[in-house]
Amino acid sequence: MCKIVSVHSFRGGTGKSNMVANVAATMTQQGHKVGIVDTDIQSPGIHVIFGLDEDRMDRSLNDYLWGNCDVQEAAYDVTRVFNSEPVNGKLYLIPSSIKAGEIARVLREGYDVGRLNDGFQELIRCLDLDYLVIDTHPGLNEETLLSIAISDVLVVILRPDRQDFQGTAVTVDVARKLQVPKMLLVVNKVLLTYDFEALKTKMQDSYKTDVAGIVALSEDIIHLASSDVFCLRYPNHAFSQTVREISQQIVSKPEPVLAGGVLGNR
Question: Regarding predicted confidence, which is higher, 5 or 109?
């Protein structure tokens, strides 16, 4: 049975899309069939990491949402990012359009969020996916609430920043009310001067939620500038090791829920 994994942040600039790309690639290396959907329709970009030229993207999520195509027609097989490395899994990306006119149309007219949910289910069936990873739009709106509500796993990305802390508290509270079965925090872009263990303990105590990883701010990631999937180019890097640990926690079964903690499974 396919698991739906939503990766969300309350604010932009957390490194969410980069984390989605690396986690999805890592799960594909482990032999899974993984689909990524870029639902950040107002400011898409994850396709850049996978080397998709927007001029050659004949179809996008926008086309499906406006009834111009079936959703699987907007799915691109990006397993080629593994180059000559043999993998048993498959990796697909459903990008959103980067065309200014189509972004403006979304902002002006919106779209049928119910059709988005139908598209998720159709992708799972047509591509025979093990995991569907949703790269959400930052903040909370109708489509992100849908993504959170249907998730088997919600991964919340935040930085060690007071604005992120406050916004994450809102997200965690909403996820609990929606009875998300499993929730994980990832603290990203952390200065090396921080005490990582102390920060992890503080986050877990504050949000009563497991921290899947503390990710150091890395100049190597900045230098790569979204031109490739980092963990594939630098598999021995500390970031890549942390991504593997996060991926493992995503695929593992949720622990039994304690009384007074997160609400029970749906």
Answer: 5
